[in-house]
Design a protein that fits this description.
The complex is a heterodimer.
Chain A (H helix, E strand, L loop, with lengths): L8 E5 L4 E6 L7 E8 L6 E6 L4 E2 L4 E4 L5 E6 L8 E9 L13 E6 L1
Parallel strand pairs in A: 1-9
Antiparallel strand pairs in A: 2-7, 3-4, 3-8, 5-6, 6-7, 8-9
Chain B lengths: L4 E3 L2 E4 L5 E6 L6 E8 L3 E9 L2 E5 L6 E5 L5 E5 L8 E8 L9 E2 L3 E5 L1
Classes of the chains: A mainly beta, B mainly beta.
Chain lengths: ~110, ~110
């Protein structure tokens, strides 16, 4: 599974876009990039995942570089409820893996 | 639809005892994974079950075990509890195993060993 590197913390103004970077230079061709977030004392919440193409859903957008060595999670209009720890994870696409390796993540603080 | 349900939410046990935690996945989900979260080590993978078979295991001692039933419900057991086993235990389920599918986590069971 790919090792991922994220900044330990970031601030964002409420209503502005939050752009959370992730470096995964060792990612292999069949590894997906997943993003989860965890609000204090709750279970992690799935946000989005992608393999090669950029992805968008109702929560966020995921931009993956062409070489797949890094990605950016974009929360288009951050709210105070988006304050959480955000985890970027690389995970194999093989059928024998159900394992997510969580790093330390990025603590996003959305400020009024 | 109902989410991942973990019971109990809180548990206090004494060193040396054993404990069983339960996880009911989302209906139709066949993969169930377990994680331990502590302030010092963060989120660590324990094991994953798919169709009643353990498919993957993390680096935990044999005191930690689990199983999955035919209805995909899963239990994990910790024997001979140690103080260091105090943690939030999280269960996650997915429709299938492997990449391409997001995992839905439960709210966890907070275990305190005294």
């Amino acid at each position: 599974d790919a090792k991922t590197t994220q900044p330990p913390s970031m601030d964002c103004a409420e209503g502005r876009a939050a752009n959370l970077p992730c470096n995964h230079s060792t990612i292999s061709g069949n590894e997906y990039v997943y993003w989860y977030r965890q609000i204090h004392s709750q279970g992690p919440q799935y946000i989005i995942h992608g393999l090669k193409n950029n992805e968008t859903n109702e929560m966020a957008s995921l931009i993956i570089t062409e070489d797949r060595k890094s990605s950016t999670l974009i929360l288009p209009h951050a709210t105070l409820r988006d304050t959480a720890v955000y985890y970027c994870i690389g995970s194999h696409g093989s059928s024998n893996t159900g394992k997510l390796i969580f790093g330390q993540g990025t603590t996003l603080q959305v400020k009024p | 639809k109902a989410g991942v349900t973990q019971t109990p939410r809180y548990l206090i046990k004494t060193r040396g005892q054993q404990v069983t935690l339960s996880c009911s996945p989302i209906s139709g989900h066949r993969s169930v994974s377990w994680y331990q979260q502590t302030p010092g080590q963060g989120l660590q993978f324990l094991f994953e079950y798919f169709s009643e078979t353990q498919r993957n295991k993390g680096n935990f001692p044999g005191r930690f075990s689990g199983r999955q039933f035919s209805n995909s419900r899963s239990e994990m057991n910790v024997s001979t509890l140690e103080l260091g086993d105090s943690a939030l235990y999280l269960c996650a389920s997915s429709r299938e195993t492997g990449g391409g599918y997001g995992y839905t986590f439960g709210s966890g069971t907070r275990l305190t060993v005294v």
